[in-house]
Predict the 3D structure of the following.
Amino acid sequence: MKGGRRQRWAKGAMAFMAVVLLSLPPPARGLENLKFEPEFNLFSARQDVQLGKERAAQVDSEFPLLADAPSTRYLNSLGRRLAAFSPNNNPAYAWTFKIIDSADINAFALPGGYVYVNRGALEAAEDEAQLAGVLAHEIGHVVMRHGTHEASQALLAHPLAILESIFGPTGSLTDQLEQMGLGMNAILLKNSRSAESQADEVGMYILYQAGYDPRAMAEFFTMVGKRYPQRTAQFFADHPDPEDRIKAVALAIPRLGPAKRWTTDNAEFREVKEHLLSLAAPPGTEPAPSPAAAYAGPPPEPSSRFSKYEGKGFSIAYPDNWQAQQNEDAVTLVPPGGTVDAPDVGEVQAYGASLSRFQPQHGAAGHWELADATQELLETMRLSNASLRVIEQREMKLKGRAALWTLLEAESPLAGQKERDLLVTTRQNTFVFTLILIAPESSYAAYRPAFEVMVKSLEVQ
């Protein structure tokens, strides 16, 4: 580099870094105001691609890749279609999607558009929208340039002369950076909590623009965490996912725009998933143990005699052959044998009632309509049971208090069965007080008289 150019480059770089060092991190923004602007970065988009390509060559040699043309072709078709809807997409990005032949549920992205998805994630996804949510999240990391942003932050501690040599025209970026002791393998995949939230936001935007239900992303997080706890340890280590993050996804979705006729599934996804499941198990996979018979048959029908439960701010009658159980968040009224041990999930209520309070997030405290708050509650419930649907809803009175009566259908924890859930909601101060009455569809008629007595007896203060 000639002296004049060197001097101009050095002055510009020093001025630029001074501004960065004096700048505070940008404040958190609501999804409706987010412009999806990548943060400080010393690398160009083409250098993102170079770094990603160099690291991808290492990944390809270190991990067992699935050499299966139909599934790889399908994944690339879906991934590139989603990437076309991403903000900050760059023509230089490679957009290459590969499958790691591992039963663990995980995915990661390298700079420049190199995305890897474990076979376990494809097989665990219940529909194409959930798989699209996984890919959209990883695409979000690429277009927001999170990997090279972290690398740029690490480089700020090094002298300007070293930086100038790194950004010269030749040589391996990975080798030069690792010679400085930066440990690029870790840096490129180290995403902060704010970067994960940002990838969620970009991912939801991509899903919405591509015509998929954005809730599918949160549904996947919730589902795999509950069903496959032994296969998701690395996924949740790489993708921090506390409960408030799942709630944040649910609350952000309405800000994207009006609901559409969402794409959820298609025949190609089902064919590819069936094909993957027919292949030999990934290397090192242990055969899944047969789940023990955890269900001994239906509990006795509700007694015609009732006891009274006095709770905090409410009371209700319940069959005297049920047991009342209280924890920090809810009160459950359960017949003997009314819970089952579902594989990879744990104890789940299949019969009985649950009473709790729900805090709506839309509107100021207490300033919400019951119908809107109930709809928000239903959206939250769908995160743990995507099949939940409303059969009927009507207004009612609880001892003169305005309430909503909502009949629901959902998948039962009892294998191969549907359940009917009767949801009653009413206002209690700034909260929504909720009563959910639960029974398998095959038993609902026998439980209905008891449910009617319980609803009529409910008194909320």
Remarks:
- The longest helix spans residues 3-22.
